[in-house]
Every structure is written in structure tokens, then in C-alpha cells.
Specification:
Transcription Regulator spoIIAA, 5 strands
């Protein structure tokens, strides 16, 4: 898994590529909580390059969503790859996350 970030004035785009599973979810969580600790509460997860998203990765996403919403922020997903989109839907979390077809659309939503 690889994570890169791009900070804008009102939000941070987090680009995730590779597998988000039990072996990598700790790094995923650390990266996102590191942004929260810096006061970055509006997050766009660009998931176009996510090859696999496990329940461990979903748990991190739900935890971070709860934290940023409590701080008045938001977490949304952009262009999730098919498997990631399916994992979110199968877990019944598609109603929880705002999902956009492109990074640009997600950025414009803030």
C-alpha cells in the first residue's frame, strides 16, 4: 500500500494505492490520524488505485469518519476501484460515505 497526500486550503486529498488489509491497515490508520492531529478534518480518499479493501480497512475508514465529523469535518471517497466500491456496499457502508465519480467532483463538494 502507498499513501500520498495533497493539501489544499480547505481539504486534504489522500491517494491510496495497493491493498488495504490487516497487514497495512495500521499504516493507513496512522496516516489518516496524523492528518487529523494536524487539524486536517476535511478528507477526500482517492481510492482509484485500491486493489483490495478488507474489513480492517473499512474499520479504519469508519473510525476516521466518526472522528472528523465530531470535529466538524467530513470524509468522502473519490472514484473507488470496483473491489473497494463493492466492499463498501457489501458492508452496508455506502450510505455512510459520500462517494464521487472523480477526484475533482469530490474536491468541489467542499
Amino acid at each position: 500500500m502507498e499513501i500520498t497526500t495533497q493539501e489544499y486550503k480547505r481539504l486534504t486529498v489522500v491517494t491510496v494505492t495497493g491493498r488495504v488489509d490487516s497487514a497495512t491497515s495500521g499504516d493507513f490508520e496512522s496516516a489518516l490520524h496524523g492528518l487529523i492531529e494536524k487539524g486536517r478534518f476535511n478528507l477526500v480518499l482517492d481510492m482509484a488505485g485500491v486493489e483490495f479493501l478488507s474489513s480492517s480497512g473499512l474499520r479504519v475508514m469508519v473510525s476516521v469518519l466518526k472522528t472528523v465529523r465530531q470535529a466538524g469535518g467530513e470524509l468522502c471517497t473519490a472514484q473507488p476501484a470496483a473491489q473497494a466500491s463493492d466492499a463498501i456496499a457489501i458492508a452496508g457502508l455506502d450510505a455512510l460515505f459520500r462517494t464521487y465519480p472523480s477526484r475533482e467532483a469530490a474536491i468541489a463538494s467542499f
